[in-house]
């Protein structure tokens, strides 16, 4: 981002320009399926979460069927541009780097980055206190990039293919802390695995705008923007927000 949240290093490849490939009655939505509470696969094998509920609400407004397709995070923009799906609804930050490869809708929520570490641990977030600590983050995210850009010569950075694997190493003691999206950390801290951990310090970045990605020049962008305005205006967005969070993330 300086790129702040989920930045794909290979995203600029395979650009696809032109009109939308959306069928008249179906919209294929790409997501990761490994980023609770925003997108995850439940016990029955269904892809669920805040992102999916938003996508379904937008599809309802647009009078099309939603089909959800999962993709590894690192390859999700190339998959969009290869027309494996029509839009990415996967808590993706709007960044200058990504805008070279895709177009974004208006933001549908705003996020932050914040550290977590063991309760009671001596973990302060100033540079001097962090020196020599081992900090984890998900690869190709703004958290990972923020660490590299701001603390690359201060901490030992460990990057992971999924957020879950970063948390696993935190609980096993292989990490001193994790930097991730505040809302994702908030969800994990409520779990049994996260009960021995807590937020540390204030957010280090608090204006991360999250949008829906479409192919460059695709008129689908404006259709999604119109539908987003409608679900905010009629209260649908708030109902989805309140299902997952006791505070507004819009």
Automatic annotation (TrEMBL):
In the UniProt record, the signal sequence range is 1-23
Any single Pfam family the record assigns to this protein: SBP_bac_3
Q: Which SUPFAM superfamilies match?
A: Periplasmic binding protein-like II
Domain Ionotropic glutamate receptor C-terminal: start-end pairs = 26-247
Keyword set for this entry? Signal
Q: Where is the Solute-binding protein family 3/N-terminal domain?
A: 26-248
Q: What PANTHER family would the database entry show?
A: ARGININE-BINDING EXTRACELLULAR PROTEIN ARTP, MEMBRANE-BOUND LYTIC MUREIN TRANSGLYCOSYLASE F
User: Which family does the similarity line name?
Assistant: Belongs to the bacterial solute-binding protein 3 family.
Could you tell me what this protein is called? Answer: ABC transporter substrate-binding protein
Question: What is the protein's species of origin?
Answer: Pseudomonas zhanjiangensis
